[in-house]
């Protein structure tokens, strides 16, 4: 493994609708308190529940910190597990945001692909965390909900060429506490960084090889 420091940004969302306290931001703050491995430079950020704010904030986050990975965390009123989202979607944004705004195109990136997958193997992360007896159930999903969560995820996947992840958490107390969710994020992000680190090492080994396989990567 390379000894270079890895940079990860983890974001949560501000309150919206019935979520007067957003479990995602509470969980991210708990993660910040717990910390990640010493070799990881962790930055956290609260994201507004506004389409236009996301469009301006995310490029600056990627540019400023040049992270190896950006993990967005959002709350889902229907989730009962910590849910790892596999992909972001470009179309179907019909719900208005905290500013009562909705994109006219109902789309995230004009001319972008319909769906972008994360480079991270979410099934592998899920399996590893669930087998670690954390006490918090983790599952995977392919539908981040076509609201600010999905919109943010797609934007980050687009900007970061797939080096992004999205984690949905249930509302606080349904059934997990802030501490539970913080521990779950610590485990999940740790596993994700391990996979990203392995992939980067593989890339360095393959640099002198043919690059033909990259043409099929997306």
UniProtKB/TrEMBL annotation:
GO terms for cellular component: cytosol. Pfam families: Peptidase_C15. One of its GO terms (molecular function) is pyroglutamyl-peptidase activity. Keywords: Cytoplasm, Hydrolase, Protease, Thiol protease. Coiled coil: none annotated. Its EC number is 3.4.19.3. InterPro entries: Peptidase_C15 (IPR000816), Peptidase_C15-like (IPR016125), Peptidase_C15-like_sf (IPR036440), PGPEP1_Cys_AS (IPR033694), PGPEP1_Glu_AS (IPR033693). It is found in: Cytoplasm. It catalyses: Release of an N-terminal pyroglutamyl group from a polypeptide, the second amino acid generally not being Pro. GO terms for biological process: proteolysis. It is an enzyme of class 3 (hydrolase). The active site is at residues 85, 149. Gene3D superfamilies: Peptidase C15, pyroglutamyl peptidase I-like. Belongs to the peptidase C15 family. Monomer. PANTHER family: PROTEASE FAMILY C15 PYROGLUTAMYL-PEPTIDASE I-RELATED, PYROGLUTAMYL-PEPTIDASE I. Removes 5-oxoproline from various penultimate amino acid residues except L-proline. This is Pyroglutamyl-peptidase I. It comes from Coregonus suidteri.
């Amino acid at each position: 493994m390379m000894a270079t420091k890895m940079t990860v940004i983890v974001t949560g969302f501000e309150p919206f609708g019935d979520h007067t306290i957003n479990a995602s931001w509470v969980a991210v703050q708990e993660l910040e308190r717990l910390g990640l491995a010493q070799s990881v430079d962790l930055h956290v950020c609260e994201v507004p529940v506004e389409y236009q704010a996301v469009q301006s904030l995310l490029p600056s986050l990627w540019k400023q910190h040049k992270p190896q990975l950006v993990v967005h965390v959002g709350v889902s009123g229907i989730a009962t597990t910590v849910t790892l989202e596999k992909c972001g979607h470009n179309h179907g944004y019909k719900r208005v945001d905290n500013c009562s705004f909705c994109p006219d195109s109902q789309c995230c990136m004009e001319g972008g692909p319909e769906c972008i997958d994360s480079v991270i193997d979410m099934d592998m992360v899920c399996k590893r965390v669930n087998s670690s007896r954390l006490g918090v159930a983790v599952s995977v999903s392919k539908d981040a909900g076509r609201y600010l969560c999905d919109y943010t995820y797609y934007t980050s996947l687009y900007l970061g060429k797939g080096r992004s992840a999205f984690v949905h958490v249930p509302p606080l107390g349904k059934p997990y506490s802030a501490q539970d969710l913080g521990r779950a994020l610590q485990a999940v992000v740790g596993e994700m960084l391990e996979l990203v680190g392995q992939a980067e090492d593989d890339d360095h080994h393959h640099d002198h090889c043919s690059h033909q396989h990259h043409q099929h990567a997306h």
